[in-house]
Amino acid sequence: MSNPLMEAVDLRKTYRMGRVGVEVLRGCSLAIGSGEFLAIMGKSGSGKSTLLHLLGALDVPNQGQVTFHDKPIYAPPTQRRFRPGVLDTFSFWEQSRIRLRRHAFGFVFQFYHLLPELTVLENVLLTRMIGTPWLRWGSRRKKYDERARSIIERVGLTARIKHRPNELSGGERQRVAIARALIHDPQILFADEPTGNLDEDSGGRILELLTGLHGEGQTIVMVTHDASVARAADRTLHLDRGVLATN
Q: Is the Cα torsion angle 89, 90, 92, 96 positive or negative in sign?
């Protein structure tokens, strides 16, 4: 693949469980093209979510590197902190990762992670609220509000815009989560088992929504254990005991 949007080389991740190290990823390399829909399949415990978290700058690899637009996401291995402290938040590398998560990457998780006290509209606006200095929020609120309403309409939830999560079905909650992930026009949408907590009908609707977004040019990286879900993607990689393989 020439000029990939994102590339990962030799990603390795080990978690400490007391005195024992559990090696989850054992050297994963892959490239993601702009506009591609990539599925990563694997059994429970195979390291799918860990790999997605490293690609999405949510966690730090012990070894290896991820580049986005040819720029490294992680510090050189000798400078990496795996449990950053408060002061590390202000480091160059941590600030760079925060910017990527706020502006370039969008995330959809299996369990939605919606705030129960907020309405659909407020949940979708949440990432914009967090990423905007409060002195600028007043001047930008109308623009962001219009964008949020447009996305909510895109996912088919205009009639639910004032509802709270406990008033929605599981499929509707996931559509809110997708709308929230799209509010800042992410270059890559990362989806971690987006249909895994839904019945077949609701899961099918979420998959239709994702394929529709892909048809509009959205780059998507999805992890799943379900082969029928993975078939919606352009390409599938298989993760087995921390090692990636193609179909």
A: positive
